[in-house]
């Protein structure tokens, strides 16, 4: 499995951690069978075998016999762990991963193997001590299947019995929590796995004590009741060890219930736009204290007109209120609000789920600018179910930080709800669609590298982080201690990534810079819109990103988030980066935003916007093939449309005839007029009725006649008409 990394396709990731995660997942199913089998055979071979009655006279205790057999089975199984990790270290070293990242991965997976093998060996011994070999081997096989597949796959995943995870022999059946993201996985699971390891040690001790009690039936001891007493004591210790682990899951499900209570019923979500209102600025002071407690103060400048809120969305004339005569902000329901001040005066307010509301009459009509101050606090570590897996949607865990703009970690001005419905608890990415304001963030107590999707202020320091930008979109915060920030020469875009993606990202930056030079030389304009690309495994973090966007993309402020996956490299998604720089969006150039056959008169109504965008993205490739393979036609979207094929041939013929500059002038004409496509398909969070009214894409209409008119206008000097 790991060998794929050295021979991966251009479209596949070269991050060895993805391949290692898949390999570990497979090994964790198969390998626990070995210590279980060894445990059965070792105990039945002599201690529980009538042919070895001479062992009754050996001057060793039953405890030593059980402990030695458990140790032998555990150490033998651990040889597989050693072999697996040695292979990983070899390939990781070959790929150039830093030793800190390698050691972190080795420790994380070795601990999981050790926990599984320790309990498996004890399980095999107790099964062997309980019944003859002809019965114990089939029972051991059933125990292996139950512990590695049935329990984690059916009881835990399908029936959401997550508190039973501690009894599983396989914690990698699904690569949960983005195992390919070596920056976040271990820190986020540290508390859960730490408690699980303590329980596994106590429960394994109970199993061995039970084995000792069973052995005492055949090999008598001086104090016959002592083995049973020890067994019951270790059972009580196991129960005590499970208590904090069980409480962790109790707290997580309690938080889920709070989120469910704040979400609308299924199909009751409505558009956010009627509820959203403008803010002029927001200043946020955040301090992280011990235990990852966040204490925050958010101060807003709220504009009004004639005492009324100003809608932030177009075509909305009056802001709709959740509660008659009240102003409502949206805030994560897990955060506790301590006070609310308007123009320096404490005012009454009410909290309903994710809504914080106060009477609109408290806004003085004598002024059109009001200062609204929220003081609130809480721990943000939002665990959620994600299909058949689980994920942390937002978190601040030591140096690991991910606070998306849409989760309500600061009060959002208006909107329907933060979540889509009670069943899925999916975040509404469109909640901040029209939010633009002057943002000023000051952060204290954050270790490691921390980045925001707004610009860093001049006085930003590692001790006190300061981000500030005018007219910006809602900010997202992310970081962890070993995040890599990659730059290249004069390329203004930086890539934030994990250690495993460094080589791939560096190659992409070099290619991107060459493309930037090409397009800026052609358009005579700088390509802006992105200053950072975050390339790491973030699928489950951004609300099931791959389920919303098959290309794994999300834009927040000046940052483009690109999901890293085993079969998704950043290189094969360069068209989306170029699309964002050239057109202002990340719509796939091969997406059919409209269909030729949908129109009665397609020559007059069908828009060629995607064909033109594709021609611009493929411009360097078209030039290259025109010189080397004149008959080759670069693929265009929607080739079923006659105009697409005609346009393709026109462009290719012009380049072959040495008229490439003429084609570039035609394409530049349309690029200057704007080729932006608004994608509404990634935010389908409305009810079914509202969705039926929603147009999937909004785009400029460029007909075949428009194309020919510009073509002939640019070619007028040749005296030819292509009509």
From TrEMBL:
Keywords: Membrane, Transmembrane, Transmembrane helix. The chain crosses the membrane at residues 23-43, 73-94, 106-130, 137-155, 194-216, 228-245. The keyword Transmembrane applies. Pfam families: ABC2_membrane_4 (PF12730). It comes from the Bacteria. This is Uncharacterized protein.
């Amino acid at each position: 499995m790991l060998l794929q990394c050295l021979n991966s396709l251009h479209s596949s990731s070269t991050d060895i951690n993805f391949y290692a995660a898949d390999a570990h997942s497979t090994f964790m199913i198969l390998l626990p069978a070995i210590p279980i089998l060894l445990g059965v055979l070792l105990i039945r071979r002599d201690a529980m075998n009538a042919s070895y009655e001479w062992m009754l006279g050996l001057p060793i205790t039953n405890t030593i016999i059980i402990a030695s057999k458990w140790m032998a089975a555990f150490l033998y199984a651990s040889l597989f762990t050693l072999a697996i990790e040695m292979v990983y270290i070899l390939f990781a070293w070959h790929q150039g991963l830093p030793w800190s990242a390698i050691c972190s991965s080795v420790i994380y997976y070795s601990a999981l193997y050790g926990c599984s093998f320790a309990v498996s060996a004890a399980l095999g011994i107790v099964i062997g001590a309980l019944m003859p070999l002809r019965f114990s081997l089939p029972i051991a096989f059933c125990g292996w299947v139950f512990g590695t597949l049935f329990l984690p796959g059916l009881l835990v995943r399908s029936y959401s019995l997550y508190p039973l995870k501690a009894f599983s022999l396989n914690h990698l059946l699904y690569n949960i929590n983005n195992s390919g993201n070596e920056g976040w996985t271990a820190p986020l699971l540290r508390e859960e796995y730490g408690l699980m390891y303590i329980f596994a040690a106590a429960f394994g001790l109970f199993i061995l004590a039970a084995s000792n009690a069973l052995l005492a039936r055949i090999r008598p001891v001086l104090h016959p009741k002592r083995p049973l007493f020890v067994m019951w004591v270790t059972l009580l210790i196991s129960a005590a060890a499970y208590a904090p682990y069980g409480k962790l899951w109790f707290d997580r499900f309690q938080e889920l219930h709070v989120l469910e209570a704040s979400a609308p019923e299924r199909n009751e979500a409505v558009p956010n736009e009627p509820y959203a209102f403008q803010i002029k600025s927001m200043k946020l002071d955040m301090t992280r204290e011990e235990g990852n407690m966040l204490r925050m103060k958010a101060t807003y400048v709220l504009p009004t007109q004639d005492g009324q809120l100003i809608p932030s969305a177009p075509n909305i004339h009056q802001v709709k209120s959740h509660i008659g005569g009240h102003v409502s902000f949206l805030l994560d329901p897990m955060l506790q609000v301590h006070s609310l001040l308007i123009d320096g005066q404490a005012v009454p307010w009410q909290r309903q789920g994710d809504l914080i509301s106060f009477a609109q009459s408290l806004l003085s009509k004598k002024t059109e600018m009001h200062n609204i101050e929220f003081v609130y606090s809480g721990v943000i570590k939002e665990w959620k179910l994600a299909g058949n897996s689980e994920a942390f949607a937002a978190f601040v865990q030591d140096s690991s930080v991910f606070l998306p703009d849409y989760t309500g970690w600061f009060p959002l001005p208006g909107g329907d709800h933060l979540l889509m419905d009670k069943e899925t608890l999916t975040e509404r990415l469109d909640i901040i669609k029209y939010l633009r304001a002057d943002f000023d963030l000051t952060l204290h107590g954050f270790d490691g590298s921390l980045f925001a999707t707004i610009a860093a202020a001049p006085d930003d320091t590692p001790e006190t982080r300061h981000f500030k930008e005018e007219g910006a979109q809602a900010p997202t915060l992310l970081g962890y201690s070993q995040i890599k920030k990659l730059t290249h020469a004069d390329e203004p875009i930086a890539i934030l990534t994990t250690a495993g993606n460094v080589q791939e990202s560096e190659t992409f930056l070099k290619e991107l810079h060459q493309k930037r030079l090409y397009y800026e030389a052609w358009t005579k304009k700088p390509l802006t819109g992105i200053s950072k690309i975050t390339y790491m495994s973030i699928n489950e973090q951004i609300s099931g990103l791959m389920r919303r966007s098959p290309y794994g993309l999300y834009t927040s402020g000046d940052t483009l988030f690109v999901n890293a996956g085993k079969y998704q490299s950043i290189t094969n998604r360069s068209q989306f980066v170029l699309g964002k720089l050239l057109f202002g969006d990340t719509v796939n150039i091969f997406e059919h935003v409209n269909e030729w056959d949908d129109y009665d008169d397609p020559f007059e109504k069908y828009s060629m916007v995607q064909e033109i965008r594709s021609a611009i993205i493929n411009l360097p490739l078209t030039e290259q093939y025109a010189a080397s393979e004149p008959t080759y036609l670069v693929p265009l979207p929607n080739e079923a449309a006659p105009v697409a094929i005609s346009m393709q041939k026109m462009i290719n013929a012009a380049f072959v005839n040495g008229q490439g500059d003429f084609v570039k002038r035609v394409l530049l004409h349309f690029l200057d007029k704007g080729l932006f496509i608004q994608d509404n398909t990634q935010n389908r969070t409305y009810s079914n009725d509202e969705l039926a009214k929603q147009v999937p894409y909004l785009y400029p209409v460029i007909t075949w006649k428009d194309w020919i008119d510009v073509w002939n206008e640019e070619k007028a000097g040749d005296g030819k008409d292509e009509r």
